[in-house]
């Protein structure tokens, strides 16, 4: 015969009540914390109710119906999508392998379109952006020859960016496209390097020739200046000689006229210059200087 505790049913009921209260408390907490959510500043929230779209929530604290509502965050910040090993042919049929980065963002007012049409940003990029990048890159790069693509990369990037922006149709904003790297075959890159070295050498030779030309011109100018200076000196000397000759001729002419007009001028000059001393010796038959004993005196 088994023994049964008369208090056993009451204890079982107590355990059931405690369990029910615990579950109720858990559900209450779940409902409480599931009734609000926060959205970051660089995101927007797509609110779904029973799987259907009902709206977009802004950054900050927001409320929803627990269990029934679901929030899918959509990033609206600026992001970068990088494409590696993109192959394209240049205008002169040179194969290039490029690395391209695309900066993009989703406009905040187009978040609903992103979710309703594509379901996610990644799905949208695969359908809207990726094919256009591949196609437009090949088209635009084919308009440049290899050398121009390297030397004028800024214009190449601008043309590719313009083409992709025009081709992309959807809730996507292209902010910038950058060609990070362009690789040609080793053979072609070596030929470009050789060509550039040759151009540098040609430029150096031209600079040397120009410098020598300038030096020669300077030498000619200096020689011409020296010749002009010598000619000027010679002309000055000739003019001085001519003037001296004319002066001397004039003096001689004047002296001749004076002698012709005054025959005794020579004797007067001698007398004026005589120091009064007679010579100590005289040759027999000669006259005493400056003493004229002719009857005319």
Task: Give a quick precis of the structure.
The chain has 7 helices and 8 strands.
Tell me the name of the CATH homologous superfamily of the domain at 79-184. Answer: Band 7 domain
Specify the structural class. alpha+beta
Q: Given this structure, which CATH class of the domain at 79-184 is correct?
A: Alpha Beta
* Share of helical residues: 40-55%
Principal-axis shape: rod-shaped
- N- to C-terminal separation? 213 Å
Summarize the main sheet.
3 strands, antiparallel
Q: Beta-strand level of the residues, as a percent range? A: 15-25%
Strand order of the largest sheet: 3-2-5
CATH architecture of the domain at 79-184: 2-Layer Sandwich
Output the number of helix runs: 7
**What is the average per-residue confidence, as pLDDT, rounded to a whole number?**
81
Spell the H/E element sequence: HEEEEEEEHHHHEHH
CATH topology of the domain at 79-184: Tetrahydropterin Synthase, Chain A
- Runs in which pLDDT lies below 50 for 5 or more consecutive residues are 293-297
The rounded Rg comes to 58 Å
Count of extended strands: 8
């Amino acid at each position: 015969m088994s023994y049964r505790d008369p208090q056993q049913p009451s204890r079982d009921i107590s355990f059931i009540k405690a369990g029910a209260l615990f579950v109720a408390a858990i559900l209450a907490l779940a409902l409480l914390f599931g009734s609000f959510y926060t959205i970051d500043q660089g995101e927007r929230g797509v609110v779904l109710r029973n799987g259907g779209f009902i709206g977009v929530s802004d950054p900050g604290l927001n409320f929803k119906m627990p269990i029934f509502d679901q929030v899918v965050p959509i990033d609206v910040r600026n992001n970068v999508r990088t494409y590696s090993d993109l192959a394209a042919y240049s205008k002169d049929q040179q194969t290039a392998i490029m690395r391209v980065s695309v900066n993009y963002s989703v406009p905040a007012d187009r978040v609903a379109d992103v979710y309703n049409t594509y379901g996610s940003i990644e799905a949208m990029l695969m359908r809207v952006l990726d094919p256009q990048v591949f196609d437009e890159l090949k088209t635009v790069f084919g308009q440049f020859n290899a050398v121009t693509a390297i030397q004028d990369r800024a214009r190449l990037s601008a043309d590719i960016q313009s083409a992709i922006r025009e081709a992309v149709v959807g809730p996507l904003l292209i902010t910038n496209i950058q060609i990070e790297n362009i690789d040609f075959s080793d053979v072609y890159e070596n030929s470009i390097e050789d060509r550039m070295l040759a151009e540098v050498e040609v430029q150096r030779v031209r600079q040397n020739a120009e410098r020598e030309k300038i030096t020669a011109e300077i030498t000619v100018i200096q020689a011409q200046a020296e010749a002009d200076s010598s000619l000027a000196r010679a002309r000055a000397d000739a003019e001085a000689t001519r003037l001296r000759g004319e002066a001397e001729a004039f003096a001689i002419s004047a002296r001749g006229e004076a002698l012709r007009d005054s025959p005794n001028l020579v004797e007067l000059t001698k007398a004026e210059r005589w120091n009064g001393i007679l010579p100590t010796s005289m040759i027999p038959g000669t006259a005493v200087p400056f003493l004229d004993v002719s009857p005319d005196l």
